[in-house]
Design goal:
This protein is mainly alpha-helical. It folds into two domains: about 35 residues; about 140 residues, Tetracycline Repressor, domain 2. It is elongated and about 60 Å long.
Length: about 190
């Protein structure tokens, strides 16, 4: 309840405080401090919940992708990321920026993020082992892919697409096309 109230405040662009989240959640102002001694502790809990939901989205997408096609799994991961960010802009904002709290202060978020990076690296390593990639510099490919996916999600959140002639109804299709273009660029002909 308190985590949802804090998320709602963040979604509205309001300043998030433990007291305001308590007021929104209709609990006494002092009660939340037993669980969340600071705003950072509350926002870490919000981010951990956002990350948990994000993981569910990723795991669902990967379960639907071919287990033997590393690039299809890489694509599924990227599309799941973009779709999740589009449907959950406040969650995306909280886990992708340092605006709300110091991400390094949450061991759970740090561990989970490392697992997601390793998962993505694993797909690229599989693709390289299968001889599918142009480059052997997996770190560079990983960072380029992350920049593309994060940048696309950020452009959507920041409202840039109408300026680029992309209507709201076209954004997801555009994401698919952009990810496919990236994959064709990293793949051997």
């Amino acid at each position: 309840m308190l985590i949802d109230a804090a998320l709602q405040l963040a979604a509205e662009g309001a300043e998030v405080s433990v007291r305001e989240a308590a007021r929104r959640a209709a609990v006494s102002p002092g009660a939340p401090f037993r669980h969340f001694p600071s705003r950072d502790a509350l926002m870490a809990a919000v981010a951990e919940e956002a990350q948990r939901r994000f993981r569910v989205e990723i795991e669902t997408a990967l379960a639907d992708a071919s287990p033997t096609d590393a690039l299809a799994r890489f694509r599924a991961f990227g599309l799941a990321y973009v779709r999740w960010a589009m449907r959950n802009p406040a969650h995306f904002e909280i886990i992708s920026t340092g605006r709300y709290f110091a991400h390094g202060s949450s061991a759970e978020l740090t561990r989970d993020n490392a697992e997601l990076v390793a998962l993505t690296e694993g797909r690229l390593a599989e693709a390289a082992a299968q001889g599918l990639l142009r480059s052997t510099d997996l770190r560079r490919v990983l960072i380029a892919g992350r920049a593309l996916i994060y940048g696309f999600a950020r452009m959507n959140l920041d409202g840039h697409f109408p300026r680029w002639g992309v209507e709201e109804a076209e954004v997801e299709q555009m994401a698919e096309g952009v990810i496919d273009l990236f994959i064709s660029g990293i793949s051997k002909p």
